[in-house]
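REQUEST ID: PR-0412
SUBMITTED BY: lab tech R.K.
PRIORITY: routine
TASK: structure prediction, single protein chain
INPUT:
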Amino acid sequence: MNKPPLTPDPADTSSPPVSMTDSVSSMIEWLRGRGKILIVCHDNPDPDSIAAAVALRHLILMKTGQDAVLSYGGVIGRSENRKMVELLEITLVPICELNLTQFAVVCVVDTQPDAGNNSLPPGQPVHLVIDHHPPKKKHADIFWIDIREEYGASATILYEYLNNQEVSINTKLATSLFYAIKSETQDLGREWSKADREAYLKLLPLSNNQILYDIIHPQVSRNYFSTFATALKNARIYGEMLVFNLHKVENPDLVAELADFLLRQQGVNYVLGMGWFNTTQILSMRSLNPEAKLGLVIQEMVAGIGTAGGHGMVAGGQVRDIGEDEQAQQDLEQLLIERMFHALNVTQSPAEPLI
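STATUS: complete
OUTPUT:
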């Protein structure tokens, strides 16, 4: 069965456009009765990936009666994300605990096959892809692909699916979707679309305000503050660019969190952060420049040594099998700094400590 397109191909004049209602309905009918379904988030899943998975599971369950298993690789490390999973009673299974051959249908949300940020084994068949990150390659063998680069959150795409199919959204699901859009777009302040804004405004009155407050303001361990201290101590400013290295971290999400935090430094327009977690160097980039194209910048930076992707102002990557020793960390840091300046076509400035 051919994949029904969400939007018509401008070059195809042989048939009338397919509406979203017909298209999503065709996807649902294709899923009906096919057996066990797996929905995979990206590694170390953030609220957008988690909420998109929960919403897809809800859509499938309500329309076909089939349940799905939600899975992820890595860890759910950030305190806000753990609190979200706890308070909204979201069940996620580590992918390492599953036998993937038991699943007839495999879906990925907020990521793509071979993106480098999910734990699906090479060659694993994938049937549905729903994402808002730029595609890296064509996947002609996948039944359903809905990639909307202009959207700020994958959760917004799933919200539209639910509305399109007239599936009711309960309080916990609404809270999940709202928090995903809120965190992914920084309260509609970063890389948002009209669709994100509409979903944000429609979901807010359906959400549980107390749960949202508890998710946004979780208590944290003493190690959390130690990591902030490490970032501040190690941060170096190169003109309008700031680089920090957390070295070994217990929670890979802290790299992105510190990148957001340090972007507030006056005069800084670009931040590159890194941290070593389970033999992998986690990279995170942020910019205040809407034209930064960080997704392309970071891919150039890790060419030949890792994988990466992202949008204009937000990007992330991984360099695997890097040694934990200090020299290996320093060598990689210097290489990435040199490549960052080259990718941005900027002359490297002398470094000065943040504090």
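NOTES: The domain at 225-353 is CATH 3.10.310.30 (Diaminopimelate Epimerase; Chain A, domain 1).
REVIEWED BY: pending
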